[in-house]
Amino acid sequence: ALVLGFCTVPYAEEKKASVLRHVVMVKFKKSTSEEKVAALVEQFCALPRKIDVILDFEYGVEVNEGERVDGCTHCFLVTFADVSGLEKYLPHPAHQDFVAVFRPEIEVLKVFDYMSKE
Prior knowledge:
Elements: E1 20-28, H1 34-50, E2 56-61, E3 74-80, H2 83-89, H3 93-102, E4 106-115
Antiparallel strand pairs: 1-3, 1-4, 2-3
């Protein structure tokens, strides 16, 4: 059964805490097999279980081939409470181990960090 819910709290009263978003967009090298890409994505998805400062994580694959940013096919969004979370994440051994196997397979890498706004 389809259930529709309605929010009774006016939008202006909804307060969302600002968070830091770490956006990673990549184009894998042509020499990187689909199996290797799948394994790397799985390893990236495992980081939130290894690094406790990650509040949220998601990823997706580009659906509009004609509009790709420099050929990037995959986007990963890692959320932290604030800049200090990112500062702990970047040098974390689990992240560094992942980067060591991920980076050699990347042709294009775009990273964008921002504090969210309402």
